Amino acid sequence: MADTASLLAQARVLILATDGFEQDELFLPRQALLDAGAQVTLASITTDPIQGVRHDTEKGDTITPDLTLEEVDTDDYDALVLPGGVANPDKMRLQERAVEIVTEFMEDDKIVAAICHAPWLLVEADVVDGRRMTSWPSLRTDLENAGADVIDEAVVIDANLITSRKPDDIPHFNQAIIDALEEELADEPA
Fold this sequence. Notes:
Blueprint: H1 4-9, E1 12-16, E2 21-22, H2 23-35, E3 39-44, E4 50-54, E5 58-63, E6 67-68, E7 79-82, H3 87-92, H4 96-107, E8 111-115, H5 119-124, E9 132-133, H6 140-145, E10 149-150, E11 155-158, E12 161-164, H7 170-187
Parallel strand pairs: 1-3, 1-7, 2-4, 3-6, 7-8, 8-12, 9-10
Antiparallel strand pairs: 4-5, 11-12
Helix pairs in contact: 2-7
């Protein structure tokens, strides 16, 4: 078995986001994954810079996506990370390719990690029925109506699906993603 550093150097993680992403929910998981040695790619609707927000009230930083949704081949990635913010997942769930990407990751039993409002995209992809999940409180009825078993915990892990509630939970969210990648990559044949 390879050591952790070399395992994560093999990890390829895709992040989907657009304007209105919650600042810390994109930048902090992205940085934690980069620091752990993973290769991280950001995809969006276009490759124009996207605007973050802080608590939906003030503008945050911008970041330039690496590729468009249409350019994503899910076979190239081990995990998908979906940051929240209210506007970001609401816009993304209207993008047919974004919904397809989520569906492909879930069908392939790859890691899918969604925080805060991002589970809206999972509801749109119709992949939450029977799954244990958490989210920002205002989404919980949507998740329940879609068949999820909603639990109020910092991180809920159900097989390949990792969900978290809010920015305060990011350290737990990041660790759950890294742990899942380590486990998945350790199990792959050399």
